Structures are given as structure tokens and as C-alpha cells.
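One example copied in:
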Amino acid sequence: MSGAALGLEIVFVFFLALFLLHRYGDFKKQHRLVIIATLLAWYLCFLIVFILPLDVSTTIYNRCKLAVNSSPAESNGSYVTLAPSKQKCFKPWSYIPNGIMPIFWRVVYWTSQFLTWILLPFMQSYARSGGFSITGKIKTALIENAIYYGTYLLIFGAFLIYVAVNPNFNLQWNQLQTIGIAAANTWGLFLLVLLLGYGLVEIPRSHWNGAKRGYLLMKTYFKAAKLMTEKADAEENLEDIMEEVRKVSESIKYNHPLRKCVDTILKKCPTEYQERMGRNMDDYEDFDERQNSYPSEKSLVKLHKQVIYSVQRHRRTQVQWQILLEQAFYLEDVAKNETSATRQFVHTFRSREPENKIIQYFYTPTVEWYWECLLRPWFYRVLAVVLATFSVIVVWSECTFFSTRPVLSLFAVFIQLAEKTYNYIYIEMACFLTIFFLSICVYSTVFRIRVFNYYYLASHHQTDAYSLLFSGMLFCRLTPPLCLNFLGLTHMDATISHRNTQPTAYTSIMGSMRVLTFIADGFYIYYPMLVVILCIATYFSLGTRCLNLLGFQQFMGDSEMTSDLIDEGKELIKREKRKRQRQEEGENRRREWKERYGNRDDSTRNRVVHTDQKESSFSETNINRPLSKYTRSNGRTERDRIELLQDAEPLDFNADLINDDPLELDSGR
């Protein structure tokens, strides 16, 4: 089993990252480089979280083996004996041989840092660029990131000059590398505590509120009102942009040098707008630079960028509106079925997507009623209590993990108790649950936050390339300080535990933070205590109240604006429900008519065909008779009929034909 656990987790984490990226991204429409870069960033961050517990168990085994093999004199030297020398060390099932983990962590860490500080910011600007060629997009991305990269070079250059001038500093390359890592982790820890303080409170509270059906339904109505406003704004913005595209398309003709750029813009427009513009185009006219003023290439680049953004926003709001409608209809069905005497769940509308037969066999209407109306609320309450307990333990440990005598961090107590008995399964499970809960609190906040319309992770393949790349940047910057914070909570970091023991492979890659004592003994110790203040602010919804004061409507039960938006959303849902009911009634009537009169129509059609055959045979027999004396009159009648039809056709208006002389008019006709 040596190394097998590492290989299995590498494969599992890859498919997990691929599944999440498929849920939020669009593999068919988005650029392959954007998909690959985002997948690599997510994969490396998730991999660090899943592999770190294996590093902890391997480190504990190496400490035990070193303590057993070392003499008492040696144990008082470089390493402290954590177990009696006569005790036998059991190798964990997931033991990773020496030399593998340092190389693994070095590759993963520096790759993620290259992505978050260099490659992903460049690809963000490249993805949002409106250039019409690869060279133009690269040029735009370099210009936009010049200030971004220049700031780093300025700070690093000033630091190098200070070190070179000051004789008290004698820094080597390893120390410079450690300072760079400490600077990156400090920035990440600053953002980590902010996101963690929000997630520790909001995740248990959201699950507790998930057990309240009325609360969820009111919040859905509130979201419907806000989303309808955003949807109307997106449609209006798209109409304005398409009007500008139409004007540009009409002004720049087929033989203009910039016509290729216009065609590229038209390909990004929705299909109905492309057809409408195609009908109004007249490319038979040549362009004349002296008579008309044409837009420049820069203005077309700006217009191309606006088209990409407006089309993506319009498509996202349309899909989100349909998803929100399904959610609202389902919550209303749950509210109706709670008082059902038959205890069978009845849906107002049939599902548009075909359900799996296996799910239909086991998840019957009776099972669905018991789960939705009875079991699910209690399950959410129990889960909320468990998550709240974890949150309290995390807050307590964040405030007391610096205390080593006595050990006050509960996570450190759990790990040290398991370390005495060398229960590696318990150690790995405790470490995994701890870091997994911390990751959920931080990463879920990343998925929830929305910076206006520039950064927004929307499910059902509706996230744009800029937001995907930005999320990859955040993950790569937050994961290393998150892992260091976890090692500090469990006292596996020698900087926190103040023990001269063998460090984990991950800590050895990070380097000794003793180079910067004010960061190691100050910021890393006391800044995480700020999570208490952030949790209190989140519990009392201070951020939500501030956003309400600034004009950004948020869901608050005691707000008059919230109640107005709930009523508006309720009316919108009723209107959409009536529209859906009329559609389904029409489909049902057509289906019933087809089932009832389908066979009769077939028999009627057969009878008509039989009658036509008889009439055709009768006409053939009459034609064979001598009709010479009727031939002339029938031909004359046919000619008269043709002339009448010709006279009945409307004449085109022509002013030259209008004359007062009736003779000329008759002769002309």
C-alpha cells in the first residue's frame, strides 16, 4: 500500500475538480486555455487539502521511528523523543516513502504560485480583451498588467537595494525565498481570515434556515424580484449594444478593410440579431472615405468587448431565471403537500428533463413526501447543529492555538492523544475533517461572493472566463496559508509549538519563518483572533445592513424594502405559473385530440382517397368518349378564364401611365 493512497487521491481529486469545473464552466464555448488553466489551479488547491493529512501521519511515523532508533543522548539533541524508545512503531497504511513528499510539495506549491501571480492575471486580461487577433489580445493583456507586474518588481527591487546597502543583513538565496513565501502567505492569511469569519457563521445558519419552508419560499420570491430587475437590465443593455453593432455593420461595407472585424463581432451576437442584421444589409455599395466617417479599430475593439460581456450576461440571466422558477414552483409544491392526507408528493408541473428509471423506482411519490415534508427539515437542523459545533471549536482553537503549556487548541489535543497510541486512521480522519471543514468555509464564500458583475460564479455552465480565472487565483492564494493555519491549530508546525521536532514535508518547503520574527511571532499568532469579531459581525448581519444602507437590497426580515420585493416576486412567480399552466393545458388538449381522433382521421383520409380513385376512373371513361363537338367551346371557355385571371392580377403603380385620354389607356392595356 506504499504510495497507493497518494495515487488514489491524486486521481480522485482530479475528477472532483473536473466535475466542479464542468458545473460552473462551459467546455464547448469557452477557450481551451481558460479551461486548462482553471482546472489546473483548482486541481492543485484541492490536491493540497487532500494530501496534507497523509503528510501528517507520515511525519508522526517518522518521528516515532527516529525516537526509537535514537539514543537518549541523541534524543536530547536535535530531536525530542515523543515515545518511549522501547515502543514499537507501526507503519501507517498510507505511508509515503521518504523523498517523495518534498518533491511533490515543491512542484505543487511553485506551480500554483506561478499560476496565481503571473499566468492567471495575464489570461484574465487576455480573456476580456476585445482584440481581433492573438497578437492584439496579448498586447492588450501586457499593457493592462504592466502596473500589476511593475508594482511587484518595484517592491522587490527596493527590498534588494535595502538588503545590499545594509551591512547587518547577510541574506542567502534560501532566506530570500522564505521571505517571498512569507509575503505571499501574509497576503493570503489576511484574506483567509475575512472569508473564514463569514463562512463559520453563514454555513450553519444557512442549513438551519434551510429547514424553514416559509423562509426559503420568501427568500426565493425576493431573489425573483431582484433577478427580474437584473434580467430586464441585461436585455436593455443587449438591445443598446446590438443597435450600435447594426449601425457599424451598415456603415462598414463588404470591401472595407475593417469588414473582417465587423464579421467577427456579428458572429458573437445572438442568432436572432444576426438574422435581423443580415436582412437589412446592402453590401452592393462601395465605401468612400471622403464622404462617410467610419469607426476606428480601437472603437471596434471596445465594441467587441462590450458584445462579449452583454451576450454572456444576457444568457446567464435567462438561465438563472428558469432555474429560479423551477425552485419556486418546487417550494410551493412542498408547502401544498405538507397537509396532504394521501402522503404522496404531487407536482404541479411535470419535469422537463427525463428522470432516471432507477431513481423513479426507488424515489417514489411516497418516499419523496416523507423526505421533503418530514425528514429533510430535521436532517438540516441536525446538520446545522453539527456544523455550529465545528465552528465553535474552530473559533476557540484560533484564539488559543499559540498556547503550548497547557495545550488549549482542541484540534491539537485530539491529534496528540491519537499520536500517543499511533492510531493513524484516527489521525488522518481528524486531520481530513478539520481541514475539509476549513476549506468548505473558505471556498464556499469564494463561490458565494459577487463583485458587482465583474466576478460571479454561476452554476449550470453560466460562469464567464474572467470569473473562472479569478476564482483560480483566489484558490491558489488562499490554500497555502489555509494549510499553514491548519498545521498551527494541530501544533504540527514547529514555529507554533516551539518544539525542536521533525517538521512535516509541507512546512520544510515553506521554510523557517524565523527569518521574519515580527511575522512569525506577531502576525501569524494574533491576526487569526480577528475571526471572533468577524463571526460576531456576520451573526448580527452587519455587512448586510451596511449594503442595504448603500442601496444594495439584501434579504432582511425586518426591512420594508424586503417585504415589497417579496410581494413583487410573488406576483412574478404567479404570472409565470399561469403562463406555464396555459402551455401545459394546450399540450394536453393537443395530445388528447390526437389520441381520440387519430384513428378516425386515418379512416377518413382512407375514405377520401378511395373516393378520389373512383372519380378519377369515372373521368377517364368519359374522356374516352367522342367529344369533338364540345372541344371548341371548352377551349374558348378555358381561354376566357385565363384572360379573366390575368386581368384580375394587380397592376404595379406607375405615374407615367396615368393619362387623361381614355383611348391611350385602353390601347396601353
Observations:
- The longest helix spans residues 560-623.
- The chain has 24 helices and two strands.
- The first strand starts at residue 450 and ends at 451.
- Residues 1-68+89-210+358-545 form one domain.
